Amino acid sequence: MIELVSHSAEQTRAIAAGVATLARAGDLIVLAGQMGAGKTAFAQGFARELGIHEPVTSPTYTLVHSYTGGSTTLHHADLYRLEHTAEVDDLALAELLEDDAIVLVEWGDVVDLGPHLHIELRLADDPLDGSDVDVDQREICITSSDKRWLPRWERLEAAVEEWTVS
C-alpha cells in the first residue's frame, strides 16, 4: 500500500502524472472516493501525462469519454449514475481494455471489475490538534489486485515519493 498526501488539486494531478508514467495498455485503474475528493483532478493529471491536451471532464452523463494522446488511448468511465451490474456490463469495459488502451474508472469501486490498480482519494479529516482543516488536502491510498503492477511497484513508489506520508 502506498499512502500519499496532496495539498492541492495541482499536486493531485502531479501524483496522477507519476502513476501515468508507469501505466500500460491493458491497465484498469479504479478511482474511489466521495464526491469532491479529487477523482476528476486525478484523471486530468493522468491524461495530461499521457499527452492528452483536450479538456478532461467527468463523464457522468455520457458514461465513457475516450481520448488519444501520443500512442495511447485512454477510456475514462464514470459509474456514479449506474444502479445495476447489468448497466456496468453494457459499458463493455473489458473490450475497452483489449483496445490497447488504459481504462480509468471513477466510482469503479461500486462493482467488481476484476484485477486493477485501486486509488482511493479522501478528503482530509479534522486534525486532532484542533488546528484548521486544510480544505485542499487529500489523502490518497494506492493498492493493487493486479499482479501486472508487481514488477512496477518500486518504480511507482519512487514516482510518487514526494507525497508519501511519513
Radius of gyration: 15 Å
Estimate what percentage of residues fall within beta strands.
25-35%
CATH superfamily: P-loop containing nucleotide triphosphate hydrolases
CATH class: Alpha Beta
Helix count equals 5
3D shape: globular
Integer tally of domains? 1
How would you describe the overall organization of this protein?
There is one protein chain. The protein has one domain: Rossmann fold (3-Layer(aba) Sandwich). The chain is an alpha/beta fold and 166 residues long. α1 (9-20) packs across α2. It has helices spanning 9-20, 39-49, 85-91, 93-97, 153-159, and strands spanning 2-6, 28-32, 64-69, 72-78, 101-106, 117-123, 138-144. It contains five helices and seven strands.
Task: Give a summary of the structure in a few sentences.
By secondary structure, the protein is α/β, with parallel strands linked by helices. The chain is built from five helices and seven strands, in the order βαβαββααβββα. It has one domain (2-163): Rossmann fold (3-Layer(aba) Sandwich).
List the keywords.
about 170 residues, alpha/beta, Rossmann fold, 7 strands, about 25% helix, globular
SSE layout and pairing:
Elements lengths: L1 E5 L2 H12 L7 E5 L6 H11 L14 E6 L2 E7 L6 H7 L1 H5 L3 E6 L10 E7 L14 E7 L8 H7 L7
Parallel strand pairs: 2-5, 2-6, 4-5
Antiparallel strand pairs: 1-7, 3-4, 6-7
Helix pairs in contact: 1-2
